[in-house]
Amino acid sequence: MQLFVNDLTVIDFSYLCSERGVVGESWIVDVLLSGDLNAESMVLDFGIVKKQIKAIIDDSVDHKLVLPTQNSDISISKSNRSDHLYVDFDVKDNGIFLQSPSAAFAQIETDYINELSVTRYLESVIKQQLPENVQGIELTLRAENINGEYYHYTHGLKKHDGNCQRIAHGHRSTIHIYENDVRSTDLEQMWCNRWQDIYLATVSDQIELSQVELSEQAKGKLKPDHQYFSYYAPQGRFDIAVRAGTLEIVDCDSTVELLADYIARQLKAANDANNYRVVAFEGVGKGAIASA
């Protein structure tokens, strides 16, 4: 007997890629369970699937930076801070170096992060916590079918009490931009090109090299155009070094509300005679609207 739940959850996370750098991603999760009927004549109660299995998936990957530990470009070591890790991603032209609480990372034994490697990781984690009558689980991870432009961005929200505070989690998002009440695909394409595989940092979080906490190995590999950001949040201290070519520093916190406003203000500043409305998405099916 099989039981399925489509659109169980959406995982918003970022991962490290030797070709693209740090990549924000959003995947929809479908689940298929196989097993015998239990005493309630069910494979598993839908309430348990929607609550317990969703919680396992969210706790394992959602709002984390996913690390392919078999990738030779990545080095992971213990930080001088308790329960924190250093992550050094030493790739040509795009070195990224971090310190974060260990809970901000998901470590997967693979050399490349994709739907298959994350699916296998999640299935193995979930199987350990299923009741005996459930013999099999099959996950499907899929990107939203977006009819138009989209971008991948990574960020962190220091004021957030939950997991959004993690300095390197992200989203795959679309955007709708209206110029004088007419949708502009040209402006949408411009912003999606501008923010493709981008790290969005808040100017108030920027620090000097002398203030950043990174591994000794990382400090020997920093380039002149690396920019440094750090903050304390309820889960611990977060530090990141990102090169200028994959970075945009914004004058606000990077909540979707303020990012929508930031884009609207940028458009208005470039052409004050026109009015703009920005519908910015944060992952799948949610976002904010701002006008200028």
From TrEMBL:
Domain of life: Bacteria
SUPFAM superfamilies: Tetrahydrobiopterin biosynthesis enzymes-like
Organism: Thalassotalea fonticola
Database matches in InterPro entries: 6-PTP_synth/QueD, 6-PTP_synth/QueD_sf
Protein name per Swiss-Prot or TrEMBL: 6-carboxy-5,6,7,8-tetrahydropterin synthase
Family according to the record: Belongs to the PTPS family. QueD subfamily.
Reaction(s) catalysed by this chain's protein: 7,8-dihydroneopterin 3'-triphosphate + H2O = 6-carboxy-5,6,7,8-tetrahydropterin + triphosphate + acetaldehyde + 2 H(+)
Pathway(s) where this gene product acts: Purine metabolism; 7-cyano-7-deazaguanine biosynthesis
EC numbers on record: 4.1.2.50
Signal peptide, first to last residue: none
